[in-house]
Each structure stands twice: as structure tokens, then as C-alpha cells.
Design brief:
seven-stranded mixed sheet; globular; hydrolase activity, acting on carbon-nitrogen (but not peptide) bonds, in linear amides; alpha/beta; LmbE-like_dom_sf; 6 helices; 219 residues
Length: 219
């Protein structure tokens, strides 16, 4: 587990972003997080697995993830070590780990008002398992939103759109560039990421957007 945070002001608004694997957070809500950090929010990022399935043994994806999330500006970063592709067998332990972070490791003056997490309509078992753990661990957080990843099913129908301008979209692209072990994947290509951002923006009536499904929304 790794954490760092900068000095915060009293009663700072906070966001927690949860991903099953390194790069999930950046893919799903990286531009939104960059914009929120720029607006003064304290962002906590939690990556549940090392994401080692399908990778060479000498690749440390947590190092890639740490550099990526730091480039977004996340003030606290936690890397956990649940086994990749096996998280569905450890939901109770994941809930406990997330609760420990939320209630014990975030500064007391930070008010977490929103959680970004995996969506349950996803073909990857780790994504579905992390969603299940998140909605329990984040039950006291007023807003819980599920983000889109390349493995979400076609029934992902967003109700919330975060408008992001070109600057913050480029911050997202820069963050994803730190995941060197994943650059061969089609969904990591900047032109494909831009196409999705334009499509979601078209749906929302803006130029570029990231899209989310509501699990819980107190306004």
C-alpha cells in the first residue's frame, strides 16, 4: 500500500476513484479527475490488483500506475495486492480494505463527496467484483458513479456526463502514456480514446466528455 498527500485546507472536498487494475481509473475518469484536481478537490486513487495477468514477470504495473496517477495530480494513491482475475473470491476482504482506506487513511478534514468506480455491466470478472465491493464500502458517500472501460457491455447507458476540455483530455492521454506495458492495446491509442470522448460529448451536447452510470446520487 502506498499513500502520499499534500497539505489540505480545512473542509476540503474529496473524491475517491477505485479501479480493479492499473489504468482502469485513467481510462474511465482520468480527464474528470484532472479537472476536479485543478478545481481544488482532494483525489484518492485505489487500485485493487497488480494487473499482472498477461504481462511479463519483470513488469511492475504498480510503478506505471503510480507515475500515471501522480501525473494526474492525485494526492493519495493506494495500490493493493488482490490476485488478478480472482477478486470475485475476495469481495469481503476488498470491502474491508476499502473501508480501512476511507475511514482510517484519508485526512479528517477531507469530505469525500463522490466515488468513481467500476460498472457492474462489464465482461471482466474483476471489474464486476470491484463494483460489488465498492458499493458496500462507499455506502456513506453521497454520490457513487460507475465509469466506462473498454470491457463494459453495450448496455452501458450513461446518465451523467462530465464535460472536459482539450487540455484535461490531453492530461488523461499523458497519464495513460505511463502504462508502457499496455501501449500495444487498441483501446490505449489516442485516436480511439478521442473518438469515444467525442461520441460521449455528442450525446451530452458538448465537445468532449466522460460518461457515467449512477449507482447513487444525493444532490
Amino acid at each position: 500500500m502506498y499513500s502520499t498527500h499534500k497539505k489540505t485546507h480545512p473542509n476540503t472536498k474529496g473524491i475517491i476513484a477505485i479501479g480493479a487494475h492499473p489504468d482502469d481509473i485513467e481510462l474511465g475518469c482520468g480527464a474528470s479527475l484532472a479537472r476536479l484536481i485543478n478545481d481544488g478537490y482532494h483525489v484518492v486513487a485505489v487500485v485493487m490488483t497488480q494487473g499482472t495477468a498477461g504481462c511479463d514477470d519483470n513488469i511492475n504495473r504498480h510503478d506505471e500506475s503510480r507515475n500515471s496517477l501522480q501525473s494526474l495530480g492525485c494526492q493519495q494513491i493506494f495500490h493493493l495486492h488482490f490476485e488478478d482475475t480472482q477478486t470475485q473470491y475476495h469481495i469481503d476482504r476488498m470491502i474491508k480494505s476499502l473501508e480501512d482506506i476511507i475511514f482510517k487513511h484519508i485526512p479528517e478534514n477531507i469530505e469525500i463527496i463522490r466515488a468513481y468506480t467500476m460498472h457492474d455491466g462489464d465482461r471482466h470478472q474483476d471489474h464486476r467484483a470491484v463494483h460489488k465491493a465498492s458499493i458496500v464500502a462507499c455506502r456513506k458517500i453521497p454520490q457513487v458513479l460507475g465509469y466506462e472501460t473498454p470491457s463494459t457491455w453495450l448496455n452501458f447507458v450513461p446518465q451523467v456526463f462530465e464535460e472536459v476540455d482539450e487540455y484535461f483530455f490531453n492530461v488523461k492521454l499523458k497519464a495513460l502514456s505511463y502504462h508502457q506495458s499496455q501501449q500495444h492495446r487498441n483501446y490505449m491509442q489516442p485516436e480511439n480514446l478521442l473518438t469515444l470522448a467525442k461520441f460521449r460529448g455528442q450525446q451530452a451536447g458538448c465537445k468532449l466528455s466522460e460518461a457515467f452510470v449512477i449507482h447513487k446520487m444525493i444532490i
